[in-house]
Design brief:
This protein is of the alpha+beta class. Among the domains are: 2-85, lambda repressor-like DNA-binding domains (434 Repressor (Amino-terminal Domain)), CATH 1.10.260; 225-303. Helices cover 54% and strands 14% of the residues. The protein contains twelve helices and eight strands. The strands form two sheets. The chain has a four-stranded antiparallel beta sheet, with no helix packed on it. A four-stranded antiparallel beta sheet has the order 3-2-5-8, with no helix packed on it. Residues 142-221 have low confidence and may be disordered.
């Protein structure tokens, strides 16, 4: 019965609208009610509209727009509209929820907190463990990537070796006889290659070990590294060597700067693609693209060229 009454009221409203030759879109524009709500009123689907307050308000705006007195229609559907009031049911559901035993509410609260802690723990572990493992692997690889700088080698090292080798070879051979007029003594003097071979044979294992020890002592121990940044394009850089104070610079195109590094250097680059770098005289790979801001630490095997 209620459904038939709502459909009858909706049909009456639709008939009055058509008499005034007003479309649903025009009616929606004048009443500021959506077309879907107006169609629900005309079809008698008042439950889709919502609370009784909304239903009465929509019917009143509808009737005023089409030139019909809204009060008789509202009085006619008052009983049906009141039956659609679901507010009391919602209030009862809320009251039932609030009157649950405190122990159950406390259990739900603790369960929610425990789930939240577990989610945060898994998330933190997924972020922290890969970062820590990556840091450890970088520290483990750092000693392998160290390169002894060429600048620490003495410049006259090749000449010193060349001067010592003939002397040692000559010391193992017998002194040459004085040269006479017919050149016989010259034929008795061994060539440098033969002298070196004879001296190596005469010295034996002990002499070879002594020579290896002497050659090992000639190699200097690396005391630092040299970092050179050359700007291909204008860029700002910030460099901190060995955990010390950060140095900021704005390098123009073509400018370069050198830093002395004992162990490691940390770089911030404002234009990664606009910088060329060398580490101990060896060119490094590109740090990134043009305009890219990059933060990195050297030495890093990922940037070393083969």
């Amino acid at each position: 019965m209620a459904l038939e009454q709502m459909q009858e009221i909706g049909g009456y409203l639709q008939e009055e609208r058509r008499k005034q030759q007003i479309s649903l879109d025009e009616l929606a524009k004048h009443t500021c009610i959506s077309r879907r709500m107006l169609e629900a009123l005309e079809d008698g689907r008042f439950r889709d509209v919502g609370t009784p307050l909304l239903i009465r308000g929509f019917i009143r705006s509808y009737c005023k727009t089409v030139g019909v007195d809204p009060e008789p229609i509202i009085d006619r559907c008052a009983e049906v509209v009141t039956g659609l009031n679901e507010q009391n049911e919602s209030i009862n559901r809320y009251r039932a929820w609030m009157t649950r035993p405190p122990r159950r509410r406390r259990y739900l609260l603790y369960s929610f907190i425990a789930c939240l802690v577990l989610v945060l723990g898994f998330w933190g572990a997924s972020v922290w463990l890969p970062a820590r493992s990556g840091k450890n692997s970088q520290i483990a690889k750092a000693p392998d990537a160290l390169v002894y700088p060429q600048k620490d080698l003495p410049e006259d090292l090749p000449r010193q070796g060349a001067q010592k080798q003939p002397g040692s070879a000559a010391g193992t051979n017998e002194p040459a006889a004085p040269a006479d007029s017919d050149g016989a003594a010259i034929e008795q003097v061994p060539s440098p290659d033969a002298a070196g071979a004879d001296s190596s044979a005469n010295r034996g294992p002990s002499s070879s070990a002594a020579q290896a020890t002497a050659e090992g002592n000639l190699k200097p121990v690396a005391q630092g590294h040299a970092l050179v940044l050359e700007a291909v394009e204008e860029t700002w850089v910030r460099v901190a060597t060995d955990g010390g104070k950060k140095e900021k610079r704005l390098l123009k195109a073509g400018e370069q700067h050198r830093w002395e590094v004992k162990e490691q250097a940390q770089l911030w680059l404002g234009n990664a693609g606009g910088v060329r770098a060398t580490w101990d005289g060896k060119p490094l790979k590109s740090f990134g693209k043009r305009g890219q801001v990059v933060r990195l630490r050297l030495p890093n095997p990922d940037y070393l060229t083969p």
